[in-house]
Amino acid sequence: MQKYTLYICLMLLGFSHLNAQHNDVPVDSIYMLRELSRDESKYTLEQCLIFAQRSLKLAKQTKIDSTILWSNMRLSGVYFSLGRHDLYVSINQSIFKTAERINDKKAIAHSSSNLGGYYHYFKPKDSAYIYLIKALKYNQYADAKYKHHPHLIIADIYIELKLYLKCEEHIVRGLSFLNELPETLERLDAKFDLYNLLGMVCDDQEYHEKALKYYKKAIEVSKKMIRKGYEEGELNLIIAYNNIAEVYRNKKNYKEALGYYDKMHKKKQFFKYDPCLYPFLIDNIAMTNYLNGDTNVDAIVTDLKKAYRICDTLPENYEKAETKQYIALDIAEVYSKEHQKDSAYIYAKEAYELSKILKDNDYKLKSLMLLANLEEGDKGKAYLKEYITLSDSLTKVERNMRNKFARIEYDSDQLEIDNVQLAKEKKWLYTITLGLLGLSLLLYIILVQRSKNRKLKFSKAQQKANEDIYNLILAQQYKLEEGRLQERYRVSEELHDGVLSKLFGTRLGLSFLELEGDTEDLKKFNDYLEQINTIEKDVRQLSHNLKTNDLTVDNDFSSILKALLNEQKELHHIEYNLTNVSLIDWKTVSDKIKVNLYRIIQETLFNTIKHAQAKIVNLVFSSTNNSLELVISDDGKGFNPRKVKYGIGLKNIKSRIKALKGTVFIDSGLGKGTTIKVSFPL
Hints:
By secondary structure, the protein is mainly alpha-helical.
């Protein structure tokens, strides 16, 4: 089913792209593909990668830097989820360079934060710090859900450098951003990390009560994650329990420490997330019992060696070696305190060798001190000398690292100052440029105003031309009606003076004839004379009707309107009903209104014929003392006014109505025709 859904999505996006290519802007498809690539709960990472790659391909077709940049950003996120860190870093480096070139502050913030986070875990810390300082400078432009990230990473760096005050400052800033966001898995996990770091800061400074306070806040966050169904909360809870137990061990409150180790043990089913936790827990319980005065040393050593052996069963990785080093040193310390130097030396040496492999200088120092105490003579002195040398070296490295970070921060601030100075210098250039632009703008306004005046004159001339056209139509209609009337007069006179006279003469001549014959023939003759007499009367009445005074020339607006409707009826075979037009006193209506009304009706008929496929159009006029109203309706297919953009025709209608300070109301719907109601003040 999932494969089918993916196929359909790609097909739809393909068609969308074809259409977008036609318009040269496939932006909607790009956004859709980006969103699909984020849905890792619905699609596999490989499918998300396909969406992200397709998004970038379409983005490149737009040739818009910002669109390409953000599609690249989404692709880098998918590569990170796939564990392709090489591609993740190279893409973010490219994004960072492009973002600086086009001054996309948001992209600078995101890419520098991504690079800072990566370098913190996989590269030298100074490389991370350079990007993180940049991320902080642009953090205000980052999305709200990512603003905590650079603060979290920098806090982690500062705690390693024992810059506790700065560390606390960044932790508090990171928490302030997270507290404003919805509590998703990622944000709750980040909040746990920050509270956990805050606890570590306090514990390192031996503020044990404050450390407990923040570790307990971390526990609250973990439990909230569990309530929301996030299993990751269980692992965080175990880590918090361990840290609290360590605080109590440092306070020599071993009973409380054992209580929290017991809580960890009850959740051992979640050690699957971190298999090293189980041997680590066994070791801590055994050592806490030993420190608490448990005299059964053999049982304690047995538990410690059990933890050590469990480590050997785990896959080879950094965490396994780190845990094994920790346990080996604890076994060595127990043997040393029990005066079993040979056994203590073996495990102390193991811890020392592992610390060199892991480059863990803290445990290397502890191993060296223990070996120095275990060995006598020159060997012991050699270990002690190495301890002193390493300790001094670490102090120097730590000091140099602090100075280096301070220089990075200073250089970044100095660059900012230089940029400010450069900005001041540019300000004068901008001022002069703006002055010139202002003059140019003033000149442009003058030219535009002249153009507007010309357009206004043209508009007035066009209005005059419209009125002239109307008057021409009116005059043409008058001449047409006058010609028809004159023709009727001519036909009337021709009938009266010509045909009627001839009929009268013929009938009179026939009446003087003295015919002889049988009675039936004489009767027929008289009947024909009577019919001729009747024809004379009909012709006389017809001539009179043709010259009646009721035949006046109707030269008002209604005639012009009827002519327009009859013309459209003959051309397009559309019926119309014209209601109340003769009830309007058109002589009282200004020519301006009549011209625009004629054009509105003309435009409406055009739209009806072209788009509506109507068969009947109804025009109903009505008037009051102050306004004239027209309702035009049809039985066409209609449209949805909220979804269909108005074309030039409707825009022209609205423009004419606005010019006359009138109102328009359009009511339509699919399958129910269209009604347009216009009203003008008289």
